Model the fold of this input.
Amino acid sequence: MDAKTCDCNDPKRKKIILAARIVLFIILSILIFVVANLYTNSAGAYSKELNIAMLFTKDYDAYTNISVATHEIGHYVYFNKLSQSQRDEYEKLFAGSTVFVSDYARTNAQEDFAEMFVQATSCQINPEFLVLQDKNKQEFFKKNIEEMIK
Done:
């Protein structure tokens, strides 16, 4: 093996890469925690590479904490339970949508999905959600929810 070639199957190299990803995720999580404490009372982070979700919260009621945790679970579902074709379908729905369940959902398809996941799995769905939300995204969740939560 020459100097330009990398053995990506080397167990030692895999451990080093995993450790670096964990350190980067911890640094990102600390930054999110600082921002959450400065500007809001609750925040979460999900790493699709490490399959780890973290929740930072203070002085919020249980429902809000559960909503933030469910949002992070929504990221897990998006990256681990949906097929690539389902993600592609949802991204097209996001791109064609003008109505969103929250301002944060406008960020990108993954955040929109996570925010919709909170609503779709919530015991206390906001009645306005049913009126204002994109019907195509609602249908996507109705069609796929059983598979998502297996």
Observations:
- The mean pLDDT is 77.
